[in-house]
Write a structure and sequence with these properties.
The chain is an alpha/beta fold. It has two domains: about 220 residues, Rossmann fold; about 90 residues, no CATH class. It is built from twelve helices and twelve strands. The strands form two sheets. It has an eight-stranded mixed sheet with strand order 6-7-8-3-9-10-12-11, sandwiched between helices. A four-stranded antiparallel sheet has the order 2-1-4-5, with helices on one face. The protein is globular. It binds adenosine-5'-triphosphate. It holds the Pfam family oligo_HPY.
């Protein structure tokens, strides 16, 4: 056991590549989805993971749960490396680590009743429970997530998106997990329903003493629920700090850019933030830029940024940032316009 106190999960030097075939002759290329990933998740916290589409959020969530095998690195769960666990041992751990998916209806088997869907993980992960005990648990958990127990024999298509996500949450909770990876759990829902599901997750977290990893491309959503926020860009961590630090004092130019999409009431600040807005497309992870991979879209980039890959540095209050220039670009917000492009 080599776990630091208070950490439920420690991710060390994680790397994940995919081999993809392209072109007429199906030439094999390597896509690096994640590299040099190091962070901890503390017992009882909600860690938000943000970044644009394709930056590696879902791949990271799936590597943590061992739904994907990383190429290298460790996923230490209470000090035990999940990447090295034999399949049978991992099966026993599965009850502790669950996932909620983005598209609630697509993730539910249309041929199973709600009761069967929620009960299903218990059959494999808690085989000692009797049928009566399983059903009793299903009813209890349905009540916890705001579903009427009389809905137990209905089918997924009879539910709205918000209710379907409640079924997905119930299915994740039924094994009494310690950690749930929530992969864009509200992105597919109407805005009016999103807050209900976010509030439900916050309540359940307290009620069941959960630790959450909350994945979203939307910094407003992540900010709402997270204690700390990890910002990913092209498969690498560029910043990790508390929600307040990220929101009020972002250090990485990419975090600043993501913040431009977050609505703020102060028009002056909103105008200043627009300067940071993202330009261009995210580069291909098959052939990423040299040095700092964000430099091709960064308005603060200098020649040195093409030559050197910025290390993930620990700065004040233990927050982390990977930018060669973060000290120089830290200027008062009202002078930002002077910097220009
Ligand atoms: N099974 C796969 N085979 C090949 N490439 C993949 C596979 N899964 C993901 N990728 C690639 O890995 C990179 C990271 O993808 P990932 O889905 O983790 O990003 P994401 O941030 O979750 O994006 P989104 O918000 O769109 O889901 C992308 O370039 C993606 O195309």
């Amino acid at each position: 056991m080599n776990q630091s106190p208070g950490n439920l999960l420690e991710i060390r030097d994680l790397k994940k590549t995919f081999s993809i075939a392209t072109g007429l002759f199906s030439r094999k290329l390597t896509l690096t989805a994640l590299e040099d990933i190091n962070f901890n998740v503390r017992q009882g916290e909600t860690l938000g993971i943000v970044g644009e589409s394709g930056c590696g959020k879902s791949t990271l969530g799936r590597c943590i749960l061992q739904l994907l095998s990383p190429d290298q690195g460790q996923v230490l769960w209470l000090g035990q490396d999940l990447t090295r666990l034999p399949a049978e041992e991992m099966r026993k751990r599965r009850a502790d680590l669950q996932i909620i998916f983005q598209d609630p209806l697509a993730s539910l088997n249309p041929r199973m009743t709600v009761g069967e869907i929620i009960e299903d993980p218990l059959r494999t992960l808690k085989p000692d429970l009797s049928k009566t005990e399983r059903r009793a648990r299903v009813v209890r958990i349905m009540e916890s997530v705001g579903l009427l127990p009389e809905m137990i024999n209905r089918y997924p298509h009879e539910f709205s998106g918000g209710q379907a996500q409640r079924i997905g949450i119930a299915r994740a909770l039924i094994t009494e997990p310690k950690l749930i990876v929530c992969d864009e759990p509200v992105s597919a829902l109407d805005v009016s329903i999103q807050a209900q599901i976010l509030n439900l997750l916050a309540e359940l977290k307290d009620e069941f003493g959960l630790t959450l990893i909350f994945i979203s491309h939307n910094l407003s959503v992540v900010r709402h629920v997270s204690d700390r926020i990890l910002v990913l860009y092209l498969g690498r961590i560029v910043e990790l700090a508390t929600g307040d630090e990220i929101y009020d004092d972002p250090k990485h130019p990419y975090t600043r850019a993501l913040l431009t999409a977050v609505p703020i009431p102060d028009p002056k600040l909103a105008r200043q933030r627009r300067i940071d807005a993202l330009k261009g497309e995210i580069p291909s992870p098959i052939n990423p830029p040299s040095g700092c991979t964000f430099r091709t879209r960064c308005r603060f980039a200098k020649p040195q940024c093409a030559e050197q890959r910025p290390p993930l540095e620990t700065i004040e209050n233990g927050r982390l940032v990977a930018c060669l220039r973060w000290r120089e670009i830290e200027i008062p917000a009202d002078q930002e316009a002077v910097l220009g492009a």
